[in-house]
Design goal:
Elements: H1 3-21, H2 31-46, H3 59-71, H4 75-78, H5 80-91, H6 97-100, H7 102-114, H8 116-122, H9 128-143, H10 145-148, H11 153-164, H12 170-188, H13 190-203, H14 205-223, H15 235-249, H16 259-266, H17 268-281, H18 287-305, H19 314-318, H20 322-332, H21 339-362, E1 380-381, H22 385-398, H23 412-418, E2 424-426, H24 436-445, E3 453-455
Helix pairs in contact: 1-5, 1-7, 2-3, 2-23, 5-7, 5-8, 5-9, 7-20, 8-21, 9-11, 11-14, 12-13, 12-18, 17-20
């Protein structure tokens, strides 16, 4: 790697770090963030935790708790793990610069850095961006077996375990990976591909066995909380049973096309660039490229089918398209690129940058007092609740010996977390008001085309006589 390329990567990783750490604690905590931070706090102070698939896997709590112990208890520290996982995800294509090409690897990293969805949820105390990192890491390790040999294979098991102990999306991702591998196999013949796969496994059988052993050792140890709850060694049954029921009842439901407008308005650049790359290459697509296309489109189809409709699941849908988009942008900005292609790419980069800036920094929280709204911001605590939270903390400081507050109802989780040591607003976009002109106006101004709703927090204050 030359000096110029090293500087480019250093600048990109530094840029990603600034984007993810800048004003990281400014946005009030989301309901789910408050739950995750609260569980981690209890693990740190009381040593109490037991796996409940409602709140996903244990790894986020095992990481948050020591961070709280070292850096202090705050929402900012609670968001640090996803933020650093987001930076690591940006740096990951560097390990594939020989496989993808130096330019394609760097552009892939840039798209990971400025993706509005990946950036927003890198600044959010949820599991999705760390899951994306572990998933991508497993594939990077697999692709490096050819150069590095059997030594990297056990780490594939560890990376897969990292996904499994973060979130139950492992039970969605594995079938999608299997389907994508089948699509690749269709090109060479299914039985030929199966024989090659078994030959590969036989060649590295000791390393593959070690990877499987590592996977089960890590997952069983963490799900059982170091064998304190031995019954949870059957965590897959517990997870799949719970989430299949949620799929059936559609607890957080929505139309099948829920994700499509969000992908079109936020992640159009990687998807369109990936399609442009596929169309241009056509019959010359490599197996990895076919795999990524199949994985990307099958992910969109799968999450359209599943009953749970939340914007953080966009993370898992956009990820497979980004390496292909990076390859297309590398060609576009190379000497072989056409002027009109570069113009379109620059426009796409500027529009993506605007969406990333608006969603993560300008309008990261929704409130009825502001007409701006983001489609990837979901039941977010309003900025106004910060004054209420600060008032409660100030009251506690003046009455250190007594109980000064009790929390119940819809505001319990955010306030319980903030007062441990909120009105919630949302934009339910009305399709009736979603005209082309309204959508275009929203993209440039972020002005919602339908009313913003809220759940109020009612506070009773006892005045001293």
């Amino acid at each position: 790697m030359g000096r110029r390329e090293r500087l480019a990567w250093t600048a990109l990783i530094g840029f990603a770090l600034v984007l993810r750490l800048w004003a990281l604690g400014a946005r009030p905590p989301h309901h789910d963030e408050a739950i995750h931070c609260d569980f981690a706090y209890n693990l740190m102070t009381q040593g109490t935790y037991e796996y409940d698939p409602t709140y996903h896997g244990p790894l986020i709590y095992y990481v948050m708790a020591p961070l709280f112990a070292i850096l202090g208890v705050s929402t900012l520290v609670g968001r640090l793990y996803p933020a650093l996982a987001g930076v690591a995800l940006v740096a990951l294509p560097l390990a594939l610069r020989r496989r993808l090409g130096p330019g394609a690897a760097w552009w892939t990293g840039l798209l990971l850095a400025i993706s509005p969805v990946l950036l927003y949820y890198s600044r959010f105390a949820r599991e999705d961006v760390p899951v994306a990192f572990f998933t991508a890491l497993a594939f990077v390790l697999f692709l490096r077996v050819r150069r590095k040999g059997w030594r990297v294979i056990p780490w594939i098991g560890a990376a897969a375990a990292g996904h499994a102990v973060m979130k139950e999306t492992i039970y969605v991702t594995l079938p999608l990976v299997g389907f994508s591998a089948y699509v690749v196999a269709l090109r060479e013949g299914v039985w030929v591909s199966i024989r090659k796969a078994f030959a590969w496994i036989d060649r590295y059988r000791v390393a593959v066995g070690t990877a499987i052993l590592w996977f089960f050792a890590i997952t069983v140890t963490l799900f059982t909380v170091f064998f304190m709850h031995p019954g949870d060694w059957m965590f897959p049954v517990k997870a799949i049973t719970y989430w299949y029921k949620q799929h059936e009842v559609q607890r957080v439901g929505g139309p099948w096309f829920y994700y499509l407008p969000r992908l079109a308005l936020y992640e159009f650049l990687p998807i369109v660039a990936a399609l442009a790359w596929a169309v241009r290459r056509r019959r010359r697509l490599k197996r990895l490229e076919v795999f990524c296309l199949a994985w990307g489109f099958s992910s969109i189809a799968m999450y359209a089918y599943l009953g749970e409709k939340t914007p953080w699941l966009l993370v898992h849908q956009v990820l497979p398209f980004i390496p292909l988009a990076g390859a297309q942008l590398a060609r576009t900005f190379s000497p072989r690129g056409r002027w009109w292609s570069r113009s379109l790419a620059i426009t796409g980069l500027l529009a993506t940058g605007w969406s990333a800036l608006a969603s993560s920094f300008l309008y990261p929280a929704i409130t009825t007092s502001n007409p701006h709204a983001e489609l990837i911001v979901y039941v977010q605590t309003t900025p106004e609740e910060k004054a209420l939270a600060n008032e409660g903390r100030a009251l506690a400081a003046t009455h250190p010996e007594g109980v000064v507050a009790a929390v119940d109802g819809e505001g319990s989780w955010p306030l319980s977390w903030q007062w441990k040591r909120i009105p919630v607003a949302w934009w339910v976009e009305d399709v009736a008001g979603m005209t082309p002109a309204a959508v275009v106006r929203w993209f440039f101004t972020r002005l919602a085309w339908s009313p913003i709703g809220a759940t109020d927090v009612l506070v009773f204050e006892a005045k001293q006589k």
